[in-house]
């Protein structure tokens, strides 16, 4: 979870992103206490609308020189929201 009013400060380097983000373990305590519970920070590599599957790849491998970990997630309903990239251009 992110504290949105401070999010713009992370884009320009005033704050680090971890300063405005709530740890997932506080929001979802089962990730800490339930066995076989995992959290992956990942991005979507593809969507198969016929099979109802999302193909993901983790963001970081902790600096290990190996193939990135990929996995798929099945879904019943899928909501796709538009994202944004910064367009900071230094002239």
Automatic annotation (TrEMBL):
A single MF term (Gene Ontology): NADH dehydrogenase activity
Alphabetized UniProt keyword annotations: FAD, Flavoprotein, NAD, Oxidoreductase
InterPro entries: NDH-2
Organism listed in the record: Kingdonia uniflora
Record-stated family: Belongs to the NADH dehydrogenase family.
Gene Ontology CC entries for this record: mitochondrion
Domain of life per record: Eukaryota
Entry protein name: Uncharacterized protein
